[in-house]
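Tokens help. Consider this.
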Amino acid sequence: PPFSQPFPASKDFSPRKFNNQDFNHLRDFCLSRGLLFEDDTFPAHISSIGPSLLSANKLSHLQWKRPTVSSPGGFQEDPHLIVDGIHRFDIVQGEIGDCWVLSALGALTLRRQFLENVLPKDQGFKHNYAGIFHFRFWHFGDWVDVVIDDQLPFLNGRYLSVQPRSRNEFWPSLLEKAYAKLRGSYQNLHWGYISDALVDFTGGVQVQFLLQKPPSDLQEIVKAAAKSQTLMGCTTPGGVTVGNVELKNGLVKGHAYTVTGATEVPYKNGWENIIRVWNPWGHGEWKGPWSDGSPQWDRIPIEYKKELCDNKDDGEFWMSCQDFAVQFSSLYICNNTPSFLDFGDRYNTPWHMAMYVNQWVRGLTAGGSNYFNGDVGIEDCHGIINNFLQFQVLKDRLPVAFFSQYKSKVLKYGFTMLTRDVTSYFFLSPGTYVVVPATSEEDQEAEFLLRIFLRSGQTCCIDPLISLAMSTLGNLSRLWGELTKST
């Protein structure tokens, strides 16, 4: 459909069944026969781990155990899905390098409206237990329900995957397994982009701020994002080759963190903007100004210190906005609408969203970023491409001849790294616009998804017949585009 909502409008929505597996049908079948579910589409086998995540020696010692099975140094005899509510501090990263998933998951625990959709309440280890669980993720334009069995990988007396702080609480491990199934294997969780997980947990739109040149109103953006109930994460500089290297300041190179809050405190003769960050390792914290026990906390009113400063080695810490921009390379903000950009809007102008699906076809629409094919019939879709994604926004309703001879544009936007989606926002004057999604090279074939979020004082019109030409009315119309592909 040309219009859709990224987040379910009601609790009665029906997500698509991943691998055509129906949770209720499978559970009822197992209960009627006294069986524990075994998932043959994601079996307790090396194929679900992946061929190169572990060494051959480790793979030979790998075991799969259900939480209901007790063993020396293993699981508890009284397992629970949730113990005393769901919190980010339930999560401790295991051997898999999926900090990008767990930092997004930590953000998810702060936003109940998203969490309750991802983690359905109709399951557990007590009532109607049959060794089967399910979780929901937003996957290429649809919500999907992913069914798993509760056999978890176990290596040398420890979880291979996420380590919950309470040894008999299993929601983090089971959710992680369901996400690994969605992505193909546990190996496919080993390194990735936090932006991907944020979108998959919310169905929302995400925007990345590069902190080498941070926006002048960074603190206001973060505070507005926290106020509007968004999910936020951030990453330190570095990549796969420098992961898990802890610096003297306590931060980890090439690591993903969760942004859990932002505020200002009276300090010296003014106000200090500070940002709260959480490490999905469950330990390891910033050691600089405004860290736990730093002298800055003794120079502010006691009521602020009591409310904000918590000297625990739980991976969460405060730091100044200036230090945050220096130490981290990127900030990611995600919500079901771009409401985190609403600060300064006195009129609470609503957002409108349109979503289109199509594909790049060689010789027809796969023109690449430096070439426009004359027959641009892009209504827009989704895909599998290892390539740089871009889009261009062009002014006015354009004739076919334009795409072969006229190169000027209003804006060109893209990332210079392999990434699954590209997002940006624009302030546009009233008029008609064309959005042209593209890859960096010609003739790259794939499906893609284009979502456009608009905020205007009047109704906006989107015409799919002219390559998403958009009529906007109002002096502060905002255009959002997101292109998504699988990695």
Q: What stands out?
A: Residues 205-341 form a domain with the Cathepsin B; Chain A fold (CATH 3.90.70.10). The longest strand covers residues 256-267. The chain has three domains: 37-189, 205-341, 351-486. The chain has a mean pLDDT of 80.
